[in-house]
Amino acid sequence: MDLKTPLYDCHVRAEGKMVPYAGYLLPVQYKSGVIAEHMAVRNKAGLFDVSHMGEVILKGKDALNYIQMLVTNDCSQMKDGQVRYSPMCNDEGGVIDDLLIYRINEEEYLIIVNASNRQKDLDWIKRHISGDIELVDISDDMALLALQGPNSTAILERLTNVEKLPVKYYTFKENVDVSGISCMISKTGYTGEEGYELCCKNSDAVRLWELLLSEGSDYGLIPCGLGARDTLRLEAGMPLYGHEMDETISPIEAGLGFAVKLKKEEDFIGKKGIIDRGTPTKTRIGIKITGRGIAREACPVYYGDKEIGRTTSGTHSPYLGYPIAMALIDMDGLDDNINNIATKLEVDVRGRRINAEIVALPFYKR
Amino acid sequence: MSKEIFYAKSHEWVEFLDDNTARIGISDYAQNEMGDLVFIGLPEDGDEVEVGESFADVESVKAVSNVYSPVTGTIKAVNEELLDQPELVNSSAMESWFIEVENITNRGQLMTEEEYNKYIAE
After folding, report:
1. Hey, are the CB atoms on A34 and B59 less than 8 Å from each other?
2. Containing domain of residue A301, as a range?
3. Which fold has domain B5-108?
4. Residue A317 is part of a domain; what is its CATH number?
5. Where are the domains of chain B?
6. β-strand B21-26 against B99-107: which pairing, if any?
7. pTM score, two decimals?
8. Are strands A45-49 and A221-223 parallel, antiparallel or unpaired?
9. Given an 8 Å threshold on Cβ–Cβ distance, is B39 in contact with A323?
10. B62: distance to nearest CA of chain A, Å?
11. Which stretches does DSSP call E strand in A28-69?
12. How much is the ipTM here?
């Protein structure tokens, strides 16, 4: 049976269209619709329930060493209050999940995992534990709200002391008092827009949700569903697990080389696998559909007559006003120049080939 | 004069202009279920349509859906306005016809408006 987040009743009251996603019933959109919700985030502000995400605490003397072995990015120089993005790989260098790592202190970290991978991640992490480490899954006790958009700071300023808010992207503050609700607030998001993610206890979630919406209404804040979350992250060129990456492709092939530190001091799981794969021939590209039609996931991509890969995600871009897609293509045997902006391609959409061209990622940058 | 409008289980409406001609669109319920429409793929004049066969596809931001013909016949006209303004279907589904069909030789199982409203309420 599908689980409900603590905000389920709020979504139903707001006429959210509830759909099963990663084991939870979540709103795909509210009555304003995906396009209006998407544009609210780009121009004003939007509020998302992302409580389905998993939260895991790793603590103990060996926590940092363990994380260094577990993930591909280098966390050794992180300071308290910083957040780092990293893939976590299997022995073959395929991606098990992509994570956000919050350093609370030298011996305590919060890890945010994808809802659909939560159990798999926990099993994997437990399997490799050694030394003085405690692992606590707090997912079922915590709610996570994402407040995103250019007005998000102004909205939070009405509810809390501005000096308590994180300022830099990918930093966080603990125990921020938001009108009496204790939150951990990070300056993070999945929309390509300025914004925050607020983590609070389940029992405070409804009050926090309603408070933000009522204080934010003057700033154009509306609730947003999974539909807008997907179109926003796609415009921002952000990868989604199960689409742009999975256990068969390496983070480098998935375009996440920036988060793979082969030179970090500690050996990490998947390092050998990644190195053994050699120089990757696969690469992630951005595609603009210039013909008529919308490419979704798994559409074959052609350069001339040669199938060079498949789309991993695709949609109509509400901000740009035309269809966009990301694709994983194999450059093996192709001229390097193919991976150039404006190279003409074709995408097979349900048996029909439509014109497309390569564009730079991200599609949208604020 | 009240229009003679019927509905198919697959959520298309059909308005018979006379015994042999009809206009076809999708119901307000269907557009609401799909959400913001951003692309509509339409057939061409002269194409044949058949009961229960897909003649068009509509894409919302989130997904693609097929539109099935409630009648068998020949396409007389296509509402090309929808190619550039698919959102018209969201704002007025009952006015936004997709195709006009002539030489109708067969009708699928159709419901009256009352029956259809009952059907979608279930």
Report:
1. no
2. 281-359
3. OB fold (Dihydrolipoamide Acetyltransferase, E2P) (2.40.50)
4. 2.40.30.110
5. 5-108
6. antiparallel
7. 0.92
8. parallel
9. yes
10. 6
11. 45-49, 54-59
12. 0.77
